[in-house]
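Collaborator request, handled under Task 6.
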Amino acid sequence: MTAIACFNGQINGYVMFEEVENNRKIECLVTIKLSNFLPNRTHAIHIHEYGDLRQGCKSLGGHFNPFKKQHGSIFNNPNKRHAGDLINNITSNEYGNVFIQYIDNLVKVTGKNSILGRSVVIHDGIDDLGMGGMRDGKIINKEIHENSLLTGNAGCRIDCAIIGIAN
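C-alpha cells returned to the collaborator:
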C-alpha cells in the first residue's frame, strides 16, 4: 500500500510512503519531492500525530511516536527515535527543490502504527537530532536539551499536509 501527503501551500509537491518487502521485512520507501523553498536552505521535516487542520498546522500535535522513544535521528541510532522523525532535515538545491528517497524501518502505512490520517510538517528551523544543549557528549543547557529530546528544536511550522491513501 502507498500513502501520500500533498503540499499545495507555501511548499508544493509531495511526500510518498510505499511499503516494500526488504529481506522478508516490510519497510517503507519514503520519497520526498518538494519545491518552492528558498535556495540552499535546510528545514526539519516530521510526521505529526494528527490530521486535524482546524487550527492549521498548529493542531497537528507532536511528533508521531508510537514506541515512546526520545527524539533522535535515523543516522545516529535508527531504532532509538520517534517513528515520525523521518530523515529529520531536508535541504533544497539552488533552485529551491528537494528530492530524496530512502528506506525507513519505523514508518508503517498499514497496521497498528499506521501513518494514515496523520500529517507531515515542514518546520522553519533545522532539527538538532536530539543533541541540542550538549557539547562533547555532556549536557550544557538542560532546557534546550530536554526540548531537543521532544522536538529537535525544529522551530515553527511553515507548512503541512495530511497523509492519505495514494491512488
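The cover message to the collaborator said: "The chain has a mean pLDDT of 94. The chain has one helix and eleven strands. Please let us know whether this matches your experimental observations."
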